[in-house]
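To fix ideas, we reproduce below a protein record of this kind.
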Amino acid sequence: MGIKFLGIVLLLVAGILGGGLWLRAELAEPDAPTQPVGMKIPPKIVKVIAPPPSPPAPVPEIVQQAPEPSPPPAAAPRRPDPAATPEKPVRIAIVIDDAGIDRKRTRRAIALPAPLTLAFLVYGNDIAEQTEAAAAAGHELLVHVNMEAESRAVDPGPKVLLRNVEPDINLERLKWMLGRFEGYVGVNNHMGSKFTSDPESMTLILTEIKRRNLLFLDSRTSPKTVGSKISRSLGIPTAVRDVFLDNEPELEAVRRNLARTEAIARRTGAAIAIGHPRDATLDALAAWLPAAKARGIQFVPVSALVSGATSE
C-alpha cells in the first residue's frame, strides 16, 4: 500500500511541474503561436456546401407583333386566250308594226329607248314627219306593206296587194307605198296570210324589193308563208319574226311574251319580236327594255339580224 501511495504522489508532482512550465511560456511570449502539447491532431476538414445558385431573373417576355399583311399584288391583266371561243352576245330586235296611224301611240313608241324598228303603214297622216321623228330618235324604219289576208272580214287598208289582180297593178301599188317616205331599210308584210302563201305573187313583189337593195322581214302571219324562202333564194337579206307580243293585248300576256322572247334569244343568240302601238304593249316595253338591258341583252335594229342568201 505504501508503494501505491508513493506512485500517486509522484504523478501529482509531475502534473504540477508540467503545468507550471506551460504557464511560463504563455506569459513570456504572448504573440508566439500556440504549440499544442503532446500528439498533433490534424484539423477537421469541414466540407463547405455552396448554396444553390439563385435562379436567373426572369427575362420579360417580348411580344413581337405580326407585321401588317401587305396587300396582295395586283393581278396581271388577263390575256385573251386565242383558243377560247368568245361568248356570243344575246341580241333582240323589237319591231313595232302599224306605226303612223295612231299618232299619239306612235309618239309613245318613238319615245321608247332606241334602237327599235318601226314599221309604218304608209296611208297615215303626216307620215313623212312621223318617220323623220322616228329616225331622229335613233330608230330603224320599215315600210309596212299591206297584203291580202285569208279572212275577208279584216281590212288590210287601201291599195292592198292582192293575188287576183294583174301583176302590174300590184307593182304600181308597191311603188306607191315605197314612195311615201324616205330613210327605210326594208319592208315587212302587214297581214298577208293569203298573199304571202302564194309563190308567184311573192316572187313578183320580192324581185322589186331586191332591185331596190332592201331587206325583207317575214312577219309570219301564216304557217304557209313562202316569203322568207323566196327572199333568200333571190339573195335578199332576210329576217323572220319569232314572237308576236300582243296577239292578246293584255299587260300580263305581253310580259309573258317578252320573257319568251328573251328565253329564245338566250338559247339561240338572237330573237325578233313584233308588237303594235297599244297601251299594254308600250307599258310593258317601257319597263322591260331597261331591265333586260341591265341583264345583258343587246337591243339591235332588225337589219342587224338578217341572214344572207341561202337556199332552204
Remarks:
- The first helix runs from residue 2 to 28.
- Residues 18-50, 55-68 have pLDDT under 50 and may be disordered.
